[in-house]
Write a structure and sequence with these properties.
The chain has about 475 residues and is α+β, with helices and mostly antiparallel strands. The protein has 16 helices and 15 strands. The protein folds into four domains: about 180 residues, Nucleotidyltransferase, domain 5 (2-Layer Sandwich); about 70 residues, GIY-YIG endonuclease, CATH 3.40.1440; about 100 residues, no CATH class; about 70 residues, no CATH class. The protein is about 35% helix and about 20% strand.
Length: about 475
């Protein structure tokens, strides 16, 4: 790893958002063939006020940067020092994102291979839970005379890598670093820097072919990693090989969390019908068995999605994509539990049902079993298919917040149905005024039942007015 040109770099910034916040200090160490050949650092006037909390953390005040050069003024010098070198940084995507945005504002296109020392530490020391810089310094006995200053932290990174090279098996360190730096093969139809702009956030991605045709829609809690995995080079999945040959454009939609990504993926797959996605049918084709466990409603009724009263899910059993599959499922239940196909409405005749004639019905059709007993056994047989009732009083919002609190969304739901996603009180009011009616969708139902079935720390549920 040390045989190639490296630059160990650290930035101080006004905040955590690369597209909005600005750099206040750059510090770097240039390394050639395992030897440092230069150090460089400078304060930068960000053009905006530094928040008090950031000033307290870094010690960099507004007065200190008032007379410092802007990023545009030092951009050429900085580019000369880092261009063509492997960029080594802690939480490297953070520093790389800030550099690319600042260079872009200065009219310069910058891209680089990146090695993250957080990820490298996790690979080399998986037995440890913490890999922040303070934890690594304590674990490896490294001191820093200027913590939270750019050059001071860059020096720590250089010392860390030297320590790992000495203390661990050299080929193992090299292999771990090479694995992290390795980039996927960029398909011929895409620009070489296509992966640089994709964020490491939850969301949905779309692969477009020629003439805008949608090839594939997917979702992930880390968009960049998931998109890159499609083009890893080995193409273990035949579908990925086909996509790599045909893709001409990558598009993505960021969400605040996993639930938003799941719902958006399901919606877009139905709307766009991508070439390489599994076909999903629309909810209008769904049907379910409606039955109440009493003699007044002895025969289960097959109802379509248009007829579903989703407020009474406790009386619905199973969701099927066709009448044929629903009837076949009920026949299988009848056979497994020796139920009467006449009482189930599967045979239209009087007298013994066919199953009774071959001794596979307990005789409710000929009076050998009471209707009440048959209904009780039917209830037991159907329990595994029973739809889950809506666990809230009415309309709710699931608030998801992205890591770092940079993005918050409220996903509005009503009786297992998705109504929309809003990002402000104003948008919530507009959605309420639109009187959007719940439209049941099987895939959304399955997403939500799984979601509410596990404990979530990254979201909260808010009850909304009807």
């Amino acid at each position: 790893m040390l045989d190639q040109p490296l630059v160990f770099l650290d930035l101080e910034t006004t905040g955590a958002t690369a597209t909005h916040d600005r750099i206040t200090e750059v510090g770097l160490i240039e390394v050639e063939r395992g030897r440092p050949v230069g150090e460089w650092s400078t304060l930068i006037n960000p053009g905006v006020s530094i928040p008090p909390a950031i000033q307290a953390l870094t010690g960099i005040t507004n007065d200190m940067v008032a007379l410092a050069p802007s990023f545009g003024e030092i951009s050429r010098e900085l580019l000369r020092r880092i261009e063509g070198r492997l960029l080594v940084a802690h939480n490297a995507r953070f520093d790389y994102g800030f550099l690319r945005n600042e260079f872009e504002r200065a009219g310069i296109r910058y891209s680089s291979r990146v090695l993250c020392t957080v990820r490298l530490s996790r690979k080399l020391f998986p037995q440890h839970a913490r890999h922040n810089l303070d934890a690594l310094m304590a674990r490896h006995g490294i001191d820093c005379d200027a913590r939270h200053r750019a050059l001071g932290d860059a020096r720590v990174l250089w010392q860390l890598v030297q320590r790992w090279q000495r203390e661990l098996d050299h080929p193992a360190v090299a292999a771990a670093a090479a694995d992290l730096v390795r980039t996927p093969t960029v398909p011929a139809g895409l620009p070489g820097n296509v992966f640089d702009d994709i964020p490491e956030t939850p969301g949905v991605y779309l692969f477009h072919g020629q003439n805008g045709v949608v090839l594939y829609v997917g979702k992930s809690i880390n968009l960049r990693a998931r998109v890159m995995s499609h083009f890893s080079g080995d193409h273990r999945v035949n579908k990925d090989m086909k996509i790599a040959r045909e893709v001409a454009r990558v598009e993505w939609v960021e969400t605040a969390g996993e639930l938003g990504a799941l719902i958006e993926e399901s919606r877009l797959v139905k709307q766009l019908a991508p070439v390489y996605n599994r076909r999903l049918r629309r909810g209008a084709e769904l049907c379910s068995w409606h039955w109440r466990c009493d003699l007044r409603d002895a025969v289960p009724q097959l109802v379509s999605a248009r007829e579903l009263d989703i407020s009474q899910f406790g009386d619905l059993y199973g969701l099927f994509r066709s009448r044929t599959s629903a009837i076949e499922a009920l026949r299988e239940i009848a056979a497994a539990h020796e139920l009467c196909s006449i009482l189930l409405g599967l045979e239209k005749k009087k007298g013994p049902c066919f199953a009774h004639q071959i001794k596979r019905c307990r005789g409710a059709c000929v009076g050998k079993e009471t209707p009440e007993r048959h209904a009780l056994r039917l209830a037991q047989a159907l329990v595994s298919l029973r739809m889950q009732p809506w666990p809230f009083k009415g309309r709710i919002g699931v608030r998801e917040t992205a890591a770092g609190g940079e993005k918050t969304e409220l996903i509005v739901l009503d009786r297992w149905c998705y109504l929309g996603t809003v990002r402000s009180e104003h948008e919530l009011g507009e959605l309420a005024e639109s009187r959007t009616q719940p439209v049941f969708d099987l895939d959304t139902y399955r997403i939500l039942t799984r979601f509410f079935g596990k404990f979530r720390r990254d979201c909260t549920v808010v009850e909304l007015a009807a």
